[in-house]
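User: My collaborator and I are trying to settle a disagreement about how two of our proteins should look. Neither of us wants to argue from intuition anymore, so we agreed to look at predicted structures for both before our next call. Could you fold the first one, then the second, and keep them clearly separated?

Assistant: That sounds like a sensible way to settle it. I'll keep them separate. The first protein:
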Amino acid sequence: MITLSNNHQFQFIAASGALAFDGKGWPWEWPLRWVGLIKPEFFTIIVKSLTLNPRRGNLRWWNPCRAVRCLRGGTVNAVGLANPGIDRWIKNSYPKIEKSPWHFVVSIAGENLQEYMEMTVRLKNCKAIKALEINASCPNSSGELQQNTQAVIDTAQALKYISPFPLILKLACTHDYIKIAKALEGAVEAISINSVPWSAAFPDKKSPLAKFGGGGVSGKIVQQHNWKMVAELSQNTKIPVIGSSVWNYNDIIDLFGFGAKAVAFGSVFLRYPWRPTCYVRRYLKNQKT
């Protein structure tokens, strides 16, 4: 279990975007929430990544399959950080979060350090937020943090001094993640793991979303990449690691065995949105017996 400096403890996470911008989920998830098959209170909810300005991305609400494809044991998406922009989110979504009993983390994605700093400052009065996630690894973004190790380190260190919230850093297996983690001990309080760029997961195969740049692969199909990252980070840094790529119940047990201190549910929400709640309920029941 991860404990942040504000004493918030969490073990299970709805990864960025899994439950939309306010924790209530996407329209196709609402009926499952109404009947209890999705229970947001089981998770610390990371809102879908926000950018400084509104971003249309590749997602179209009337055709969500346009930028998402299902794979055997996972998904690939090239949503492209579609979001209303941070100001509109603060105006329209944050008031709902402020009144909610659930726990929230805000994820931000910038093109450069200046954008990350500006978004952090704009969030300073959003006291209900438990932490801030620095999304340094969106495979559908052209931000400098995707490729520049020092830029990731500099950004996190800069935000540490201005953020009123604990920081979670979201990396990908394509980063020099051990070097980054060692440099940021004491600056960030947890590391989360993003999807795997298509080119890294399948270097010799064309993506079904090639027209959008390939997209990011998530789920069981990339466990070999992301679980290796969990194990290596757990062995080489003091920063707690949030495991990813959960697809089946036993994946939770395996991730804790690899050293993860918390587990995030991402693309499994897309394919089987009832599974995360079922898995957490089962895990908690087993812990009591």
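The second protein, kept apart from the first:
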Amino acid sequence: MSSKRFKKLPENTNNLQSEKIEKLLVEIKKNCTAKFDESVDLSFQINNKQKKNEINIRTVVNLPGGTGKKVKVAVVCEDAKASEAKTAGADIVGSDDFIEKIKNGDLNFEKLICTPGMMIKLSKLGKVLGPKGLMPNPKLGSVTEDLKTAVTDAKSGQVEIRNDKDGNIGVSIGKKSFSDDKIIKNFNAILDILEKEKSNNTLKGDLIKSAFLTSTMGVSYKLKLGKNI
């Protein structure tokens, strides 16, 4: 059953023509009538079914405007590197003792970073970390000796771009309280990384079939992309 607040929102917005983000942000923010600072969210559907193979995207992007969210970052490292992780702002830092806690289901964090030397031990916990999307990955910069950069990026607005089995990608690009300029910069950073992924996959035709913009408690609008992806 729809709330009184939701009933006041525009209806059948998916029937409208697609518009550029600059115009849609006005409507999106107007519809942010919840009592908290709603997120502005992007959703894409990609052409992941190809003749020869299936396109799978998994990468990270540093949003220049940040996300407006506090991310709890944990680091698994050798004792000698613990101070580096703590100084960088990691919320939880540990080695073998911490791995044991993770093994027992203590997953009180949203991002996990690991040094290459400790990854051998951590890799055995795939059944615990994998389903939660928490397993560190060298391609995503979360298995590294440079803990300072990894922790700083995770804290300052790094997001993961990953499609599900149906080809859908969902990512937040800011908050209602953000300036339009900050949200648009984040949006363009997402498009840049998707354009790069298209080149890496040598994809013929468009990568994106459809794109929508919405807010946490709002309605979605068709989004016109400004780049050839």
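Some points you might bring to the call about the second protein. The first strand starts at residue 39 and ends at 46. Residues 26 and 136 are 38 Å apart (CA to CA).
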